[in-house]
Amino acid sequence: MTSRYLLHIAYNGKNYHGWQKQHNALSVQHVIEEKLSLLQGENIETLGCGRTDTGVHAKSYYLHFDTRQEIDTDKFIFKLNQILPYDIAAYGISEVHAEFNARFDALWRTYEYCITTVKDPFLHDYAWYQYGQLDMEMMNDCAQKLIGSHDFECFSKVHTQVNNFVCEVTEAYWQRKNQTLIFTITANRFLRNMVRAVVGTLTDVGRGKITPQEFDEILQSKNRSEAGQSVPAHGLYLTSIQYK
Fold this sequence. Notes:
- The protein is of the alpha+beta class.
- It is 23% helix and 30% strand.
- The protein has helices at residues 28-40, 73-83, 136-143, 194-206, 212-221, and strands at 3-11, 46-48, 57-67, 88-96, 108-116, 128-129, 148-151, 166-177, 180-187, 236-242.
- Strand 8 and strand 9 (180-187) form a beta hairpin.
């Protein structure tokens, strides 16, 4: 008889080609499954709450897996952290019902993107360095236009296998913390490369390259080539997953 467990982890994405397993590239999923299989003495396969691209970080990530072996949840996290590499940490584990799905049962996901306005060697791998002033008020005005249910094809990577490009965004805003600008966005789902394309377009607004009216036109265009650049992955963090 198998039992299903929900595992809460975090990872620094610098050394990984994203979450999802792939041939000839190291992924977070590959490492997690390898260590879980070692602990459980059986082949463990996982399903994550979503996929993150190469270099993207996750401060909070959930996955589920099935096992035939009993798990002592009080001791399991300590044992798992002992064998995980330094850039992956396990936070908690709990048994869930057999039909629970870490991906499809997730209601909301939150991402943050970090920009540093000062060249900082300690933020080199964790924030996108941008010299010069960005108009935060203008960027926040345009960010508000993202809230609601919209077709976000203009911010999606092309040739993706999805049925539609509609996402429901509940919050999107910029805030300043010292020399760091942080963009936060929450939605029921995200398209491939969506957040990085949104940030690239909003920073064009902040530099005066795009007007608010042009931002509206981009959002309605459903054309990726109309939007701004895809900003570097190392400034992006998955920060929260909400379940029922």
